[in-house]
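EI: anyone free to look at a 313-residue chain?
SC: sure, send it
EI:
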Amino acid sequence: MHRLQREDGMALLLVLVVITLLASLLSEFAFSTLVDLRLTETFRDRTGSYYLARGGVEAGRIMLQVDNNAYDHPTELWGQGVANYPAGEGTVSIEIEDLSGRLNLNGIADSRGNPLPGFHRFVALCQEVLAMSATEVETLAVSLQDWQNADPQFASADDSYYQQQQPPYTRKAGALDAVEELNLIRGFDQQMVEALSPYVRVFGGNTLNINTAPAAMLYAWQASAAAGNVQLILEPADIESIVAYRDQQPFEVLGDIEKVGGSNPNWLSAWQNATVKGTVYRIRGEGQVNQGIRTAEAIVEKQGNRLLSYRVD
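SC: here you go
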């Protein structure tokens, strides 16, 4: 009798062990299935947000093309952007920024390193933004000029510096592809690049849209001549008056400068190659589906809707 009871006890124990193992396997299977489900949902949402972001960029390009008046100002439709607009199962946001109010870093010198008006404007801008001496910022400008010098016979004094870096690298000997490339150029550091970023660009021509240019850029734009030959027609107080007027209403033609209080006819001569229209824009589209968020960013030339740069994050 006792023997039968012992056998029944062993059978029960074995059943309990089997049940425990099955429960563990089922729990593991359920967890694995849940993880796979979440991964699938995440992939689905990120894929959907990817296409929404790209669609946002294309919508932004259309917004620029239908804007065909004689001036470009942030109060226009393109400058208002779109925030969290419902689209399908998610939302899309669009931001458009006119980069034409910035200094083109690829316009400081020609392909053989001869300084252009942009060289002197860059020096003046750095003095305003970086609070450095004229000698210090001119050294930066020369390094930038040499970095881009495409003359095959040219040898820069900075070449040995680049070769001594870890890892070593060589000068670009060509136009910059991104503002962040300044970090590679001798004399620049991350803090300087971040400070200059809102004022500079690497795409488009060498004109300046006074409707979107920061105050420091408006002031520096006067410095198109070499040091010693610069005529600063506008003082900082004049720039403040211009910005205050512009914040209320756009300059529809360059001559509208004369409508600013305290202006005089000489103000127009301070800005060679200045305009009231934008030429190159950054369009940022952000798509969101549930927790999936993707962004797409394009640099486009308004004339001809030409795509200059494109990336998706």
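EI: Helices lie at 2-66, 77-80, 117-130, 134-148, 159-163, 190-196, 215-220, 236-248.
SC: 👍
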